[in-house]
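Reading is simple: the token line describes the chain's fold. The lines below illustrate.

. . .
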Amino acid sequence: MEKTNKINILQILLSIALAVILWAFAISDADPMIYQTYRSVNVQLRNENKVTDRGLMIVDDKNITVSVRLHGRTKELNKISKDQIVAYLDLKGATSSGKFVGEVFVEGISSNIEVIEISPKYITFNIAQVSSNDFKPAFETEGDPGEDHSVIGITSNKEYVSISGSQDSVAQVSSVKGIVHLSGQKADFSQTVVLNAYNNKGDIIYDVSVNPSSINAQVSMGMNKSVPLTVTFKGKLPDGCELGELSILPASVVVAGKAEDLKEVDVLNLGEINLTGKESSFSLNMSATLPKGIILTEEENFFKVNVEILGNAEKTFDVSSITLNNVPTELSAQVISPDEVAVTLVGSEKVIKQIKASDITLYANLKGLEAGVHTVNLQYKLPQSVKLKKISAAKVEVEIK
């Protein structure tokens, strides 16, 4: 009897064990253990304020993601999304500039789930000393103003703004600018403008911060007006030289300003040109000094001025007519020789080109002479603004009879 009872108890225990094993297999089949990888899990950077408190900053992109591989029951893993996984990296160990390697951890996962792998497990950051600088904000415009109007001035409520970033990045900044958007405005207006830091090539430097990041810009609008350009001259040209044509390229410009200021502007003088010692034509670049409240609608304030100088020129004229003055009464006179006199004149090109041989007067004075052949001094009268350089005969032979 006792033996039978022991057999029954053993059978019961074996049955229970078998039932547990069968139950475990049944559960395993219904909710098996699996591996699942969650990609692009965002990594939180903790204690970043401790880095900034030390006057340091992270140079690299702080938007970091990792892949997390978990092991657990199917039903539990299926309930988890990547946004529920908390991955973090502690920056409190970043105490100086240089490279800092931080380890990524995961939290907020059920104890029934095992973290198998975090990839990458370690992240390297470049830590730099924070630098700053102040800049006067500048402005550019985009779009078009109203017809026959221009922007004549932009001011802001901030004389200077501050930039901060790594020493290398701050050193690249050459200007801080904002874009004012135009859309047909004719009257003054204000606009909130976003500021960006630029290098000397005109590219935005994104890894520096501008404080404040935006400012209020007051935009002054003016009317357009086309006016001619001119210059004034001082000094004296060398003898025989003459001022020729003056040309200015362009001959006129468009200026802009308030209506009351434009009334006073009918011509724009580029300034004085000194002609002293100038013997030949020349060109130079000049810029306009603008009246208060007036601007050029084009940014370029350089104009090419061409000045023509008509220098000394010479030309020889063959004069065959010689006038005989004071011929004795009741006598006649004629030139025996020479038949023709070569007269060389010097003067400005313009004047010389206009002179003819007939404009030159040659004459001899016969006063007090009697009948016969005489050698008489040859005299002359020349057109204005020229000088005699050479004459082929100083005397003429005259016969009086």
